[in-house]
């Protein structure tokens, strides 16, 4: 929690991102600019790229400017400092901000993913994996207090493993550098997002042995959020954004992994199309992509249970305090 307090105090040091000028939509009507900050670039967020590539946002009159901010703390700092209008990041960040005390809380208004998106990758090929194999190993984890690490610890404990006593847990590697650290020889196991996990497997750098998403259950892993003040002033934009997202979620749900891969490939130009398809299929098969934008109470409570188990929950917060599902419900009623 101390780290969150530090970056919250350093917001004034961040220079806001510049906004693009509005483009023209159909019939010459100008598009409204929306600056969107995503926590990382991952096939985990396929419906978002579908919404962009298929023009669903533009159909709603929005020109969405996407920036990858690489990490939950950086993403939330960008949002709070006014460098972004909307952020795609773990829902736990809104709880951290609220617990610090604020007159302008960050509100979750649409869910994108409903399971963890990371996979357990072993340095060596294991034909018959069991979680017991992690005991005594060096585990290259994620940032303390972030959803990947908290879910990782939650799953390990479910399998009778204390992450702080039963293995050598490394948590001091910056989020963006974790794959490189593992590739260079750090750790026996690592927790990775896609497409990196499958790419490592393809290149013989590691082998996927388990999915944290299938082990942890439903949780609002990543959602779209905005400052309360922005939502109050731009309800029409939030409404349009959510409608476009829901259209993309339905499109992903009703199309094949191959079709989805072809649409989102421009956002992963360094990744082979066949690999993108493999990753999308893996996420679809485990129910990772939410099929609607509603963040429900069961998911919200599961999130807080995971945070509490990791010792990172400052206090329990009611769903309605930091979640506004009205835009999601309206979007579903107008399709």
UniProtKB/TrEMBL annotation:
- Can you name a GO cellular component term? periplasmic space
Q: Which segments cross the bilayer?
A: none
Tell me which UniProt keywords the record has, alphabetically.
Signal
Please state where this protein is localized.
Periplasm
Recorded hits in Gene3D superfamilies, A to Z, give: Periplasmic binding protein-like II
The keyword Phosphoprotein appears for this protein:
no
UniProt signal peptide: 1-21
What protein family is recorded?
Answer: Belongs to the bacterial solute-binding protein SsuA/TauA family.
Its recorded name reads: SsuA/THI5-like domain-containing protein
- Which organism was this protein described from? Geobacillus genomosp. 3
